[in-house]
Amino acid sequence: MGELVDGEWHKGWYDTSKTGGEFRRTTTTWRNWITADGSAGPSGKGGFKAEPGRYHLYVAYACPWAHRTLIFRKLKGLERLVSVDVVHPDMLEEGWTLETGFAGSTGDSLFGKRYLREIYTEADPKASGKVTVPVLWDKQRGTIVSNESAEIIRMFNSAFDGLTGNTDDHWPEDLREAIEPVNARIYDTVNNGVYKAGFATTQAAYDAAVEPLFATLDWLEARLSENRYLMGDRVTEADWRLFTTLVRFDTVYHGHFKCNRARLVDYPNLWAYTRELYQWPGVASTVHMDHIARHYHYSHETVNPHRIVPAGPRLDFSAPHGRHHL
Ligand SMILES: N[C@@H](CCC(=O)N[C@@H](CS)C(=O)NCC(=O)O)C(=O)O
């Protein structure tokens, strides 16, 4: 754990002393967009045209934000167009590493670097800020396109359609306005809510995260008792963004992050919905529970000082989901 300051690595855990024990997620800095014709996207600069073989993802299988991008790579048939490297699950004082030695960790196939931060300094020798996954890398220009998962999934949703012929749309025009507030609530109270609970260093900060987290899960349970997917009968990015937190919930957030008012499996609709999304063609292969369990329990020394990785729970994501009737 640490961050880059003018290209130099500074070690240190999150400082919650100035925020009353609250964990505040910093905003991301690389915000360009791949587009079909290379024109600029909603943020950043242009010049990142969708081309086969040009782009590369650095991901952690453990990370729910990186997981979104892997899911979209699958759903949109981008495996042959966008290559991937997977970091080691242990994120210690050097930050994410590209070391091998854990099944599934690939090393760095582009540069042979040892640390993910060297990918950031390869793009900008004076880079400052957190070194996070996912990173979308442009092999042609030798720079980072984006390290913002919410935007990477929108690029993947459409930028390569002309090359792949896959026009499945997870961010349909007619639902965009309705998706936004759903995403916002889920991001704040669930995706990031579990982190706010888990990294809180005061009771007040923990309470302030746990209450809205479970209020939102109750709201989602009711919504999913009447709708097959969050936005009705079509699966959208809102579902995939929620899925990556739900699939980790009982293994890491319930125990390690103390989000333990209830388990995912205690919510019949949310649990069946999670199983349906898990069973979606291609998706199960993006879920690596060994990386998930190892990363959280082993890396967060302040939360789990002895780094013991618990044995369970046993979860059967392949059990029939029975949601066809909705
Ligand atoms: N806004 C980013 C957040 C990504 C993020 O926070 N990733 C975590 C892993 S789950 C990370 O790399 N953390 C490293 C750090 O905070 O130093 C996104 O959604 O892409």
UniProtKB/TrEMBL annotation:
Pfam families (UniProt xref): GST_C_2, GST_N_2
Superkingdom, natural source: Bacteria
Site location (Lowers pKa of active site Cys): Y253, Y296
Gene Ontology MF, one: glutathione transferase activity
Domain GST C-terminal: 172-296
Catalytic residues (UniProt): C63 (nucleophile), Y195 (proton donor/acceptor)
GO cellular component, one term: cytoplasm
Name of the molecule in the record: Glutathione S-transferase family protein
Organism: Sagittula salina
